[in-house]
Design a protein that fits this description.
about 400 residues; alpha+beta; 2 domains; 4-stranded antiparallel β-sheet; 13 helices; 13 strands; about 15% strand
């Protein structure tokens, strides 16, 4: 189809055409970035932690008053918990996935490095690998004699006696690949603090940070340190998913019976923690979906309204064209081509604007760069919406009889 008559007509309606182009450009820019942000949120919510989340329950308690025998009481608690029906494994740990805190350590491969190679979350606890359901892909787990109590570790640090500190560690595959790419990490030395060396004795496939799922989400280290309940430990029990409610109920009753002089701070399943942790992400994704739908609906209605207005204005010219031999298909194609041109201009401007918005988000909020695939997908979507929106008015224009249109003039 010759587009010169279309361009000539649009020049006589510059203001309304520019408004429609601006609306399409703004919709394109916002929707592309919003869909990208929705994808980021959904990807973040689908993170794989490496932990048997569906099998875990947790209990965090606090003593009323001080308990100098916290380590012994913690061992007694664990012994009782492991005897409960349905409990496969149990431990006390300083970290719980999707919790509100994270203990981090800087790792170096050379004690003389001025800066850390990476920062990793550190997990304490005896028997974390079986209790968390982690997959050991290389090396071995800690032996019983390798564990040390947390209070003794603190005492050694205060004395400056690094020789009394644990000298071994388990790392995730992500940490091993980052520190020693392409090498066998077993037996390698990594350093923390003031040149304290730790020997890697085992590698787990995955273990996420407790509450940071951005860059380096799988940078975690497990230390052979026992932590007492009085030191802020969390009891973690592993059982079959269908037994979680019953195990949690019996575990609470058992702990209360062993020492009623303590209170429950938190309890539940790791699945519940995950659900609560990503509440804001789900809300944000829902808001962005609503914004996208609203913009697309408003844009489609704008196209329908403007096309209907132009059809009403061009009744005489449509009748003349029909009288001169133009078919209904010709009229239909005319309005579809006109809409395609306007939409294409709006999309081109919208892509430039979308790129600018993404650059702002990168600089201000450190978001990733908008993938190029969003541009053609967004263009196709807007073209489809534009053609669908203009179809009704175009069909009404094509249905105008030539004689009626000429008389109406």
């Amino acid at each position: 189809m010759d587009i010169r008559p279309i361009l000539s007509t649009l020049r006589r309606h510059k203001f309304t055409a520019c408004l429609l182009i601006a609306e399409i450009a703004l919709t394109c820019a916002i929707v592309c970035n919003a869909v990208f942000l929705i994808g980021q949120r959904l990807e973040r919510m689908q993170i794989t932690t490496g932990v048997a989340e569906h099998e875990l329950v947790y209990i965090q308690m606090a003593y009323v008053g001080m308990r100098p025998d916290g380590v012994a009481r913690g061992a007694q608690d664990l012994a009782a918990l492991r005897q409960l029906a349905g409990v496969r494994s149990a431990t006390t740990t300083n970290e719980i996935l999707f919790g509100g805190s994270s203990s981090n350590m800087g790792l170096r491969i050379d004690p003389n490095q001025q800066t850390d190679t990476l920062s990793a979350s550190q997990y304490f606890g005896e028997g974390i690998v079986p209790a968390f359901g982690l997959q050991l892909v290389a090396g071995r787990d800690f032996r019983p004699e390798e564990y040390q109590d947390l209070d003794k570790v603190f005492a050694a640090l205060r004395r400056g006696d690094s020789n009394a500190l644990p000298r071994s560690a388990l790392v995730t595959r992500a940490v091993a690949d980052r520190l020693w790419p392409g090498q066998d990490p077993l037996g390698k030395q990594m350093y923390v603090g003031q040149g304290i060396g730790l020997t890697v004795i085992g590698v787990v496939k995955q273990l996420s940070r407790p509450n940071n799922f951005q860059m380096g989400a799988q940078y975690s280290v497990i230390n052979p340190i026992r932590i007492a309940m009085s030191q802020g430990a969390v009891y973690v029990l592993r059982c079959a998913p269908q037994d979680r409610d019953q195990v949690l109920k019996e575990a609470l009753a058992t702990l209360k019976a062993l020492d009623p002089n303590r209170i429950v701070l938190k309890k539940g399943t790791v699945d519940q923690l995950r659900h609560d942790y990503f509440r804001d992400d789900r809300a944000m994704a829902g808001i962005l979906v609503g914004v996208c739908l609203a913009l697309l609906i408003v844009t489609a209605l704008g196209i329908v309204g403007l096309a209907s207005f132009w059809v009403a204005q061009r009744n005489r010219s449509i009748g003349v064209r029909r009288a001169l031999g133009a078919t209904r298909r010709n009229i239909l194609h005319y309005f579809q081509t006109e809409n395609f041109l306007l939409t294409s201009i709006g999309i081109a401007l919208g892509m430039v604007l979308a790129y600018g918005i993404n650059l702002f988000l990168i600089v201000r909020y450190e978001l990733p760069r908008l993938p190029a695939i969003y541009f053609p997908v967004g263009a196709i979507a807007l073209w489809a919406i534009g053609q669908a929106a203009v179809l009704g008015p175009a069909l009404r224009a094509a249905a105008v009889p030539p004689v009626v249109a000429t008389r109406a003039a």
